[in-house]
Amino acid sequence: MSSSPRRILLISEHADPLATPGVGYQGGQNVYVRELATRLARLGAETDVLCRADSPAQPVREQITPGAQVIRVQAGPAGPWPRDRFGEVLDEFIQQADAAWRVAGGYDLVHSHYWYSGLTGLHLAREYGAPLAHSHMSIGAVRRASLDGDPGAAQEALFADRHRAECTLARQADALTAYYPGDAEDQQQMLGASPERLHTVPPGVDTTVHRPLDRREARQRTSLPADVPIVLFTGRLEARKGLADLIAAMPAILRAHPRTRLVVVGGTRHRTDADSAAALTAIRELGLQDQVLMAGSVPQQETAAYYSAADVTVAPSRYEPYGLVAVESLACGVPAVVADVGGLAWIVGDESVGDRVPPRDPDAIAAAVAGVLDRGPGAYHRACLDRVADGLTAEHWVDGIQRMYRAVYGTVRTH
């Protein structure tokens, strides 16, 4: 990493890189930060990831890979803490970040993820003079626009606080990442970000992990039936991910392809969380108990087997800043039907690798899935792999992050 920072602090306040994705708030950010830390360490940068401890039983320091570790700090009451209430423990988190900085002897660069982490990173950058790179991960104004109706006074106040913070970060961070060109435009128009500070760096996947596996072997590994069409949903089960719309589409999918099974990867294995309970209720009401398998969360390294076992992955999110699930599916040679929102629409692009549908539209989901199943699993394989090779690998992504780091490394902060 010539001319690059040698000691890097990544801040990811609510998303522990070693947590299992698909449970609670754990999802794409965890995967993103873990993969970034791993890649930076392999390239010779000593990398720490700072996050809030979810349990006193967790080790304060835990290795991610040689050269990279997570540092968990206590902030607020012991135990899990809602992401939307992180402002209540932010001051303590910043104090702990200060202490961690001093123990480590400082860092060459700070890279924060999400707005609470950004405020923490901005404090450290001001206090110690290190350059700050920031990844919004999502934009509050875009998230607000995706909601139905009035979210209530408390949520409106939170969105207002978030917007002010994101505007501050857009002005004062030394560098900003954007997922794709439309995200860069949103940051300029909504947050006042300077084009000179924006670096469009689409997150990519590790193609040694997410790669095509033999379908028969993949179905054996996942204990899925060998001779039926498989529709895959993977991700958190919260409402904005659109699982309810996919479940509602299943009766129409079954009319076109009667033997189809929907496999849901995400949520808790014991199905006791509220989101899993809501999904199970919808499944029972539609009489789909035999057609839908709730697989629970699985380790990230095992998801390739589920993608490879599937005929199509569906990401029907009502709002999605990026959509790493779609990239992972394409990397396994499996087409994706996605909501025509955010990064999902940009990733899928045209019908060569799947289809795009309006959000919140079960009929459109059903028609698109049936169309993909009509063509058969092999029809999209080559185009899916080509799409990932064209700038959506982890190597492309980390190369872009390094270029951003080099652009600000050695910057002397004056604000």
TrEMBL record:
<keyword id="KW-0808">Transferase</keyword>
<keyword id="KW-0328">Glycosyltransferase</keyword>
<dbReference type="GO" id="GO:1901137">
    <property type="term" value="P:carbohydrate derivative biosynthetic process"/>
</dbReference>
<dbReference type="Pfam" id="PF13579">
    <property type="entry name" value="Glyco_trans_4_4"/>
</dbReference>
<dbReference type="Pfam" id="PF00534">
    <property type="entry name" value="Glycos_transf_1"/>
</dbReference>
<feature type="domain" description="Glycosyl transferase family 1">
    <location>
        <begin position="214"/>
        <end position="375"/>
    </location>
</feature>
<protein>
    <submittedName>
        <fullName>Glycosyltransferase</fullName>
    </submittedName>
</protein>
<feature type="domain" description="Glycosyltransferase subfamily 4-like N-terminal">
    <location>
        <begin position="27"/>
        <end position="204"/>
    </location>
</feature>
<dbReference type="InterPro" id="IPR050194">
    <property type="entry name" value="Glycosyltransferase_grp1"/>
</dbReference>
<dbReference type="InterPro" id="IPR028098">
    <property type="entry name" value="Glyco_trans_4-like_N"/>
</dbReference>
<dbReference type="GO" id="GO:0016758">
    <property type="term" value="F:hexosyltransferase activity"/>
</dbReference>
<dbReference type="InterPro" id="IPR001296">
    <property type="entry name" value="Glyco_trans_1"/>
</dbReference>
